[in-house]
Amino acid sequence: MADEMCAGLGKEGGSRVQMLLSYVDKLPTGREEGLFYGLDLGGTNFRVLKVQLGGNDKHVISCESREVAIPPHLMSGSSSELFGFIASELAKFVADEEKGTSLSNEKTRKLGFTFSFPVRQRSVASGTLVKWTKAFSIEDAVGKDVVAELQTAMQKQGLDMHVAALINDAVGTLAGARYYDEDVVAGVIFGTGTNAAYVEKANAIPKWEGELPNSGEMIYEKLTSGMYLGEIVRRVLLKLSLQSGIFGEIDHTKLKTHFHLRTPHISAMHHDDTPNLKIVEEKLEEILEIASTSLETRKMVVEICDIVARRAARLAAAGLAGILKKLGRDGCVDKHRSVIAIDGGLFEHYAKFSKCLEATLYELLGEQSSKSVVIKHADDGSGIGAALIAASQSQCR
Ligand code: ADP
Ligand code: MG
Q: Which residues form the Hexokinase C-terminal domain (predicted)?
């Protein structure tokens, strides 16, 4: 993992681990001051935030936010439709938040934009979309600068706002956690997708052209994310059912439907602690229309969930160990703390996944090294992180 990360920093396409540069060369310190907005576009919904920063370690004085669901048809429509919708919701939020205040007469508002898809950046406030992931597929946006798209849409809404930084959720989580704790070395997301961001020494990035920035980030995906775990279990169950009839004579329509069994479903079955696996029984019936299962069969379903979640968690832990190794922080004992800030629905809600992830990381590092490594759940770093980076990038210190 660490070797692949090095290779990915060496040249474009030089590794199976895609290392993307974030161009963020100033992480927030706590001294930032003023009003900043954040916009977080991740999976199925987006969030808008307004953050008032106090400066001089007064940190966040106030933070207001609103979550908006993205209408499914916009996920595969046109770029201008998607960004038009986002800009109009953002404009509504700003109007509501600033009602009765004199802010609207002041200078241009500053926005940090968290856009959690692979983007190739050439500066901190621009980036072309490499490809869509998760549920999105808006062909005409691929290859375009998503900041320019958003900026144009905001202009059409008459919204006086400037995008000061474009980041992804992992960079946002890193920034949000570092703002409060300077020992944070990486921001990691286990949600619909998986990715991680860490601070790299500028001179360790051969592929960087031009003036050197101080940061870097990497993205990897081994079908370990929330998007896939339910689907993997579905495929295993389908194969078992077709090959050995474990569920008896059933209608396979639901079991054959791609992505029909979702990760929250397998999480619910996996955590079922009722004596007769009542929840497993209900889920199989409700979601897959598999009725009258025996306790033995239900136990096997739980075991399959366990195998799939464990595989994902152990691979994810290997990724974290790789980052620590790359940073030279996999062997140090008690010298300095290394905090890994993690966010994302999978990590937050799938307890057996997060427990296994943590246990595996400590297993890989060994008892001594583990003492200095801390895993921290960073709740909603990605939204606030965007506003914080907008602040750190636009203030000269
Ligand atoms: P994103 O911002 O990428 O959309 P989130 O961090 O919001 O992702 O996480 C959403 C993902 O978390 C879902 O795709 C799902 O796989 C997973 N998830 C949500 N709730 C649960 C749950 N109860 N158990 C397991 N996984 C869950
Ligand atoms: Mg998210």
A: 213-391
Q: How many of the other CB atoms lie within 10 Å of CB of 379?
A: 12
Which protein residue's CA is at the shortest distance from atom 8 of ligand 1? 191
Total domains in the chain come to: 1
pLDDT digits (tens, 9 = 90+) for 196-226: 999 888 788 887 766 655 554 555 866 789 9
Task: Note down the domain range covering 67.
Answer: 13-180+380-392
Residue 264 near ligand 1, beta carbon < 6 Å: yes
Cβ of residue 192 lying under 6 Å from some atom of ligand 1: yes
Residue 97 lies inside a defined structural domain of this protein:
yes
Residue 33 forms part of a structural domain: yes
If residue 233 lies in a helix (H) or strand (E), which one and from where to where? helix 226-244
Tell me what percent of the chain is helix, strand and coil, each rounded to the nearest 5.
45, 20, 35
Answer yes or no: is 142 within a domain: yes
With cut-offs at 50, 70 and 90, classify the pLDDT of residue 116. confident
Is the ipTM here above 0.95? yes
CATH number of residue 60's parent domain: 3.30.420.40
**Å from CA of 169 to ligand 2 middle:** 6
